Amino acid sequence: MALMMQGHSRCSICEEILPEGASLFATSGVWLTNSHPLFRYCDSVMHWNCYATWEGRKEFARSYAEFCAENERSNPYWGMAYLDRRVLVTVSPSRKEIKVMPFSTGLEYSVGFDGWQAWLKDPRQVYQRHPLESETLAEVLPLLRRHLPHPDVVVAAVDWEAKQRLLDEEERRNEAQQKAHERSLEEHNERCSLFWNLFQDKSWACPKCENLEFRLSERAGKKSFVICRRCGAMFSGTESEKRQFSDPN
Q1: Dmax (CA) of the chain
Q2: Residue 20's pLDDT is what?
Q3: In this structure, are residues 14 and 50 in contact, taking their beta carbons and an 8 Å threshold?
């Protein structure tokens, strides 16, 4: 979500300060090329009233909804339950939450499983800020009532086997990254240990302050360092570091 501070940040449409408590519309991410005329509105915040009446809203909202739909395909935790030219519906069984994004506004409605059926009957129980919302929901609600009348139907509409494959791939990547990190840490600490052993046979002076006293800092799961007791300079035993040291004797 775009970073903003109410009372300090400015609306990207009218460029006025966003006051405390104002109804806002915000996007997250950058999906348009920098040559696109609407590029500067990506990852920004605006007054809801400015956005609702903005001449660029429909094009901007559709492009944002399409961007969100494309991102969902690679998200293992949320599933796409419904998508057409008017609305995107995603669901997270673990969070027991359904999100509805009409293409005409790009505004996202988050509804819990326990409130889904009541929301389909009367969304004003949850949201009612501007006539545009009523118009938009009046267009998409009949579709949702027909295709997704119950949370169980919403969940069943998702290809969770495909999502599991994404999750498995993510876990394999994380495992590979963790192993690579552990190998790098092991190599670093082994090099540092050998470097420290050299200090037992040499009277090396710190290249920063010429001090002769050092200590070895070792902690489980952390990088080790040889540290100068005077200036606190840290060394790990790289070849470039070794060349900086000199023996005063």
Answers
A1: 88
A2: 83
A3: yes
Mean of pLDDT values over 211-235: 94
Q: Output the 3-class SS for the chain.
A: CCCCCCCCCECCCCCCECCCCCCEEECCCCCCCCCCCCHHHCCCEEEHHHHHHCCCHHHHHHHHHHHHHHHHCCCCCCEEEEECCCEEEEEECCCCEEEEEECCCCCCEEEEHHHHHHHHHCHHHCCCCCHHHHHHHHHHHHHHHHHCCCHHHHHHCCCHHHHHHHHHHHHHHHHHHHHHHHHHHHHHHHHHHHHHHHHCCCCCECCCCCCCCEEEECCCCCCCEEEECCCCCEECCCHHHHCCCECCC
Write out pLDDT tens, residues 113-147.
999 999 998 876 555 567 888 889 889 999 999 99
* Sheet of strand 87-92, all strands in order from the earlier edge strand to the far edge: 79-83, 87-92, 97-102, 109-112
Amino acid at 153: V
Check residue 178 and give its pLDDT: 96
Note the pLDDT tens digit of each residue in 36-55. Answer: 999 999 999 999 999 999 99
Rounded to two decimals, what is the model's pTM? Answer: 0.73
Rounded Cα distance, 2 and 240, in Å: 42
Q: Are 226 and 216 in contact (CB under 8 A)?
A: yes
Joined tokens for residue 220: 């489980």
